[in-house]
Amino acid sequence: MQILLARTQGFCAGVARAIDIVEQALIKYGTPLYVYHEIVHNTAVVNSFKERGVVFVNDIREVPDNGRVVFSAHGVPPLVLETAKQKHLHFIDATCPLVTKVHNEAIQFSQENIDVILIGHKGHEEVVGTAGYVKDSLLHIVQNVHDIEKLNIPRHKKVAFITQTTLSVDETRELILKLRAAFPRLTGPQKDDICYATQSRQDAVKELAKLCDLIIICGSPKSSNSNRLREMGEQLGVKSIIIDNANELDTKILSEKKCIGVSSGASVPRYLVDEIIAKIKASYPDAPITSFDNPEEKIIFPSPKI
Ligand code: SF4
Predict the structure, then answer these.
(1) Fold annotation for 98-182
(2) Is 198 close to ligand 1, i.e. is its CB under 6 Å away?
(3) Which of 3, 11, 163, 202 is 20 to 30 A from 228 via CA?
(4) What average pLDDT does range 167-193 have in this prediction?
(5) pLDDT digits (tens, 9 = 90+) for 94-112
(6) Cβ(229) to ligand 1 under 6 A?
């Protein structure tokens, strides 16, 4: 057996920045410190901040007036910002700049009074946040072909599309093609809004799928980009599983496998992947490991001044 680590995986620049913002806020202000939504969708990251006294809330009204709150990397709708201002909260925005870019597209199309088709998973925090920047009367959220077929917009109208940043690249391309066919005057970003990290992690799983007979993705259940990685492996015909940490790995699944591919979502700390590798090695000590230097090392989103 051999172990192959995906070329790109683990923390993206937006996640590293969001975590750094909470770290800096803890150092400078201490607790009480609130975070609106999970700062990033990773159980270990969230639990480690909880242990240090950070309180995570799903409703901004739970933060006491004049309290200090960090907005998660997924972004927030304007209503949350307004409520934070009304409550005189000291807020720090950890929204990933690539999500903010989508918010700006949403604002622009909405101001131009163009119907906006937002491709994304209904209910996901990022989609809720982005949707908030589009006038209700212009907003259409679609997550699959059936939703596109049900759209009640005249075909001749100029419509715009925007997307969640962590979708399946291939599925989104298909949906955009369908939209182009349905709405000849469709406008939008040049390709889609899927971020570099989502794209490169999916490309790396495609490489693994050519060589491996099992793909293990480290990622938490709510992590959209991690779940897309597992789905990609399966779609390419390779048994693929997603686990939050090494404890969830049942080593029985490794038996008779020749090549195990290991990757992780954009919100996963490296030590969790190392623990999974250590568990595989405990059963197969002779398995060689192939890994790569991090090609994204130089992509950094600087944190704001806290
Ligand atoms: S996955 Fe993409 S959009 Fe999300 S935080 Fe990372 S870089 Fe930003």
Answers:
(1) Cobalt-precorrin-4 Transmethylase; domain 1 (3.40.1010)
(2) yes
(3) 3
(4) 96
(5) 999 999 999 999 999 999 9
(6) no
